[in-house]
């Protein structure tokens, strides 16, 4: 299915007109057209390629999935590839949706792989800022980028909340180490994936603002700078979260080692205390005469020795925090 829009002198005039009429409309230099394809066929893209004179390499990139987020500039148009991102708050699963866009002087053509990319949200952003529509195609591209970058921000926020919850679990008195390991691995994997779609957007937005493209006019410049600032913050946030997950994992391992050392200290200390009565009773169990042999005071002497030595070791270990 295809969706279309036509702006004339910054005013929305027409929607959902036939794709074949685009070439007739853009004859007027005051007209800007938007065309959206969802899961298009090769013939759909071939038709619009002829209508707008799109480069065959750009069309090929739009057909092939899993492109890197980028901006390729050709003689008559530019090709933009980007990804929206969202994280399920319950499962913590990160999903991305790819969108490709052809940017010409009078038209924006978006190509989505599936309905996962919410194009209605992009349209809503255009409708919320009608005063910028006079800036032409740059206005349409800004709404698209603004939606994509805000999605990156929201995904980073959800992952940040997940990491904070993981931090609390690390310092539980009886942590579930298997759950912590799975969660930290899953979070790190999501952050690596998010970084792949966020980091290249810095170059994309920066390139779109180049004067030679003539896409961003004076009215749009502050808005594109705002998007670029959000891109930088989302990228830095993602990087810091990756480092934080690594730190949490290292902290968990250190705490495991610390708890193991404490257990070993306690076990060793009690073993040393138990060795005292064992040694004393073993000495008095010899089958040879010794001081107190077969005498009541010998029994009391051994009992007192056991109590005094054991109490002395307990006090010594407690003082050194071994118990």
From TrEMBL:
<feature type="transmembrane region" description="Helical">
    <location>
        <begin position="297"/>
        <end position="317"/>
    </location>
</feature>
<dbReference type="Pfam" id="PF01544">
    <property type="entry name" value="CorA"/>
</dbReference>
<keyword id="KW-0813">Transport</keyword>
<dbReference type="InterPro" id="IPR045863">
    <property type="entry name" value="CorA_TM1_TM2"/>
</dbReference>
<feature type="transmembrane region" description="Helical">
    <location>
        <begin position="267"/>
        <end position="285"/>
    </location>
</feature>
<keyword id="KW-0812">Transmembrane</keyword>
<keyword id="KW-0472">Membrane</keyword>
<protein>
    <submittedName>
        <fullName>Magnesium transporter CorA family protein</fullName>
    </submittedName>
</protein>
<comment type="similarity">
    <text>Belongs to the CorA metal ion transporter (MIT) (TC 1.A.35) family.</text>
</comment>
<dbReference type="InterPro" id="IPR002523">
    <property type="entry name" value="MgTranspt_CorA/ZnTranspt_ZntB"/>
</dbReference>
<keyword id="KW-1003">Cell membrane</keyword>
<dbReference type="InterPro" id="IPR045861">
    <property type="entry name" value="CorA_cytoplasmic_dom"/>
</dbReference>
<keyword id="KW-1133">Transmembrane helix</keyword>
